Amino acid sequence: MTEIQDMRSISDVRSISYDAVVIGGGAAGMAAALELDAEGFSCAVIEREDHLGGILMQCIHNGFGLHEFKEELTGPEFAERFINRTAKSKIAVYLNTTVTQFTAVEPSALDSLIPSFRVQNYSLLYCVSPSGIMQITCRAVLLAMGCRERNRGNIRIPGFRPAGIYTAGLAQRLVNIEGYIPGKEVVIIGSGDIGLIMARRMSWAGCRVKAVVEIMPYPAGLTRNIVQCLNDFDIPLYLSSQTTNILGKDRVQGIEVTPIENGVPVSDKSFRIDCDTVLLSVGLIPENELSRAAGIELNTATNGPLVDSFLMTNMDGVFACGNVLHVHDLVDWVCEESRRAGRYAASWLRGERPSLQIKTKAGSHVRYVNPSSADPEKENTVYMRSMIVKNDAVLEVRLDNQVIKTKKERLVQPPEMISFKLGPKDFEGKNYSPDSILEFIIY
Length: 443
Hints:
Elements: H1 10-13, E1 16-23, H2 27-38, E2 43-46, H3 75-88, E3 92-94, E4 98-104, E5 123-129, E6 132-143, E7 147-149, H4 152-155, E8 165-167, H5 168-178, E9 185-189, H6 193-204, E10 208-213, H7 223-230, E11 237-238, E12 241-247, E13 254-261, E14 264-265, E15 271-274, E16 277-280, E17 284-286, H8 289-293, E18 318-320, H9 331-349, E19 358-362, E20 366-370, E21 373-374, E22 380-386, E23 390-399, E24 402-412, E25 417-422, H10 424-427, E26 437-442
Parallel strand pairs: 1-2, 1-6, 2-3, 6-18, 8-16, 9-10, 9-16, 10-11, 19-26
Antiparallel strand pairs: 4-5, 5-6, 7-17, 12-13, 13-14, 13-15, 19-21, 20-22, 22-25, 23-24, 23-26
Helix pairs in contact: 2-3, 2-9, 5-6, 6-7
């Protein structure tokens, strides 16, 4: 794998500036940075780990890149292609470096920092690196910090705090990177994709995966992972089942499972599954602490930033893309969205600004719509997730209650993200204003 220079000496970074800074060196961060570099702007990627690639580096299974590269790759293979491109570019990469704070600053304040760096809109970032604290000034910031796993505290399962409870992603790192097997008899709570993939991985490692327990009436992961990771290994999947207790004091001894009927747990039908290890695969949350501290408005449906058609947040010149914006089902879509974010940031740096913005709204059977506004004068890519499982579904777009576009979907289900295109032709002859609403409905 191509090596990338880690850190500069502290004398080089005390008063450093770039046109743009990308926070996060995963697929999203590299894709966005490569677009900025191609557009001729100076760019830096700041990554807190000691390598680029993000979570992809521990995903040794295949299934990546079918859309992006038209071939099937493992996670590290997918990441390596972007790492090699980044190494050949002019992008500055800072590894083992964490952004602790960033803020918008008045133009006059920069005179004392970097007299030659005079711009109308810019941000000041504070970072902690192996060489100490450094400051970076830039005209655009791209948030690409990815997401994190929900843990036991988020879902409040009763019981003591015995050894043997892990998030699925942590278990994946232990097995694939560190070479440790966390247990012998495993139960997975939640049917998210990481959990499903770990069911297969633990089986390959010689462990016995006794069950996957899902509180919803449908799986949370992709259909292909249900087939390849559970069905192929005869691993039971309990749907509409709630984990009501984790048993054991010093080490996990089992879990208690209670079936849900008509939305109500039926305690009389509770049963026990013996195990020594529990893996939690109960959802992902965008890494939003840095965004929240900076004053960026968050979307209550996704927990990521609210962005306009430029993928720009409520802070001028601050953009968001990838899983920090909303959790994607495929890294290919992460790269697609992040490239657009890089192009939008480049447009911003050239002085272009979004024109009329029409707010988007999640209607019937739609969990969320991203971005939160669309530009009727340009091509828009809108992402959303269904709240229902339905064959031969119809996605309908309404402008102020008037249908302007429909799209047939062979199958919609919550685990799979839906992509939708809207362009100037869809708005031709339509009356709209800044107060208009674009509503997305599935039936």
